[in-house]
Amino acid sequence: MKIIRDTIHGDIFFSDSDISLLDTLPIQRLRNVSQLGTVSWVFPGASHTRFEHTIGVVHLAKRILRSLIDIEKYRELVDILSAAAIFHDAGHPPFSHSIEEFGILTKRRHEERSMELAKETIESLGNTDLSASDVVKILGKKMAYLSDIIAGTLDADRLDYLNRDAHHTGVSYGVIDSRIVSLFAIVKDRLAIDERAVIPGETVLFARYVMSIRMTWFSILRNWHGTTSGEKTTRNRFITSSSSFGCKKSLHLTRITLLQKPGLP
User: What is the arithmetic mean of pLDDT over 165-178?
Assistant: First the structure.
């Protein structure tokens, strides 16, 4: 058991199984993959990483799961759910959506690459207590409410990044009511919310809409078209370097290795 101090959630407890996965190369790479890509060119405080977001998603996923089921069932499922949370963003390229949305480096979505990395990494560790196939099923949205906790309409991923992005950009419209984490339910084997969570749930969806319009897409498009010579240079570097990297190699790239590739302008 280890404790990591997080900016948003405070002390987060991680099991030995969690730590063994967090310490792998695909996850440690996320320390150098920016959460909001080139958004920091518009919002300078947005320098947080996919690794920070990952540990937040693990924390929230566990909290949601614990609120849904009894302790015995929780102990049975928590390790595979936590593993799925750890790998849910492992396939993101450097600068995240800034590159992915424009088809640079690879045409494949990060979700596909995340499943590939989860399977390869877990199997390579030889941990017989952790099923790589179950983790991939969760990431592939094939395990009902467990998949919904990681990637649903209201999920651990969204609940973390809205608060985290709002904190680091200094805006208020991404801050959400944390009470919703305790008001989930299982209905017909799918994740749902208690009627008391309808208003908090609506604020999450509205926050996502406002944040995506006001911050993420505005920043990505501005930076892509390049309103300054520095932005245009970086955009051209993306394009030039992408031609020399295959999909497989892109899984090991960080923002540093991409922008410092020798011979680029």
Answer: 85
8 Å CB contact between 54 and 19: no
Least reliable range by pLDDT among 56-60, 68-72, 219-223:
219-223
Distance CA 83, CA 19 (A): 10
- Contact status, residue 197 vs residue 181, Cβ threshold 8 Å: no
Catalytic residue numbers, as ranges: 110
What is the tens place of the pLDDT at every residue in 232-247?
555 555 555 544 444 4
* Longest alpha-carbon distance in the chain: 58
**b/e code 80-109 from CB counts within 10 Å (16+ = b):** bbbbbbbbbbbbbbbbbbbbbeeebbbeee
Q: What domains can be seen in the chain, in order of their start residue? A: 2-259 (1.10.3210.10)
Secondary structure element (H or E) that encloses residue 18, with its range: helix 16-22
Residue 123 has pLDDT above 70, yes or no: yes
